[in-house]
Amino acid sequence: MAWRLTLNNLMVEELHTWIDSLLLSKPTTRFERDFADGTLVAEVIRYYFPDLIDIHNYISSSASKQKKDNWFTLKRKVFTRLGFDVPEAIITDICNAKLGAVDIFLYNLRIKIDKQLESRTNTQKRHLASTEQTVFPLTAVNQKHKGEPRFSTRSNVTSKSNNNLNNKWVHQSDFNELKQQCLRQQQQLGLLLTKTHSLEHFVQLVDKRINEFSPAIVDKRHTKHSDILVKKQQKK
């Protein structure tokens, strides 16, 4: 990993564009502040590897201790599984919102994510290639076991169910594809739920502020109306 480097404006802009393309729970306006507690880093990794992240382990906070707790949880439970060695000095700089530190981290994280995705894809291809060589129709299975004694009613039910699947092929690739679709849908659902909770919290804050300002607004309108009446009476 390249931790001692200077990113030019184009590289930083590309990083920001990449982050903006992800479905994060809150918009990023200032990277040094937004990524300081590590929660958005967890969301970025979960976007690509939902099996690595339990989002409840990471608590949004402005307290230094909680920030470091989040980061060292990431380092212990996630970064090690990705083979991603992040220096403690970098983590400290990010927690302290040091200018440019999070950009260097995200630059290296993106490289690691791309390598992991490529590695997983190659592994899946090799696995599918090996399983597809052993795929055969269920009719062959039925013929192989034809004539074998049936020991119970449960076996008869199973046999009848198998007969309904005649001439169909069982592909490991189909199963893997469905599994990946389920993971992607779970990931999208989790992100939508997180966004919903954030919006609900935002609405609550807005309502609270409205309730705080409403009496002052009403009082100001009443005072203004009274001043107008006084001026009219003075003119008379």
One letter per element, helices H and strands E, the order comes to: HHHHHHHHH
* N- to C-terminal distance: 82 Å
Q: What fraction strand?
A: under 5%
Low-confidence stretches: 138-142, 148-161, 164-168
Domain Calponin-homology (CH): 9-114
Protein name: Calponin-homology (CH) domain-containing protein
GO cellular component, one term: axoneme
InterPro entries: CH_2, CH_dom, CH_dom_sf, Spermatogenesis_Ciliary_MAP
Could you explain how this protein is built, in words?
This protein has 236 residues and is mainly α. It has a domain at 9-119: Calponin-like domain (Actin-binding Protein, T-fimbrin, domain 1), CATH 1.10.418. Helices cover 71% and strands 0% of the residues. The chain has nine helices and no strands. It has helices at 9-20, 31-34, 39-48, 64-82, 88-95, 101-132, 138-144, 153-163, 172-235.
Descriptive key words:
mainly alpha, 236 residues, CH_dom_sf, 9 helices, Actin-binding Protein, T-fimbrin, domain 1
Topology (SSEs and partners):
Layout: H1 9-20, H2 31-34, H3 39-48, H4 64-82, H5 88-95, H6 101-132, H7 138-144, H8 153-163, H9 172-235
Brief characterization of the structure:
It comes from Adineta steineri. This protein is mainly alpha-helical. It contains nine helices and no strands.
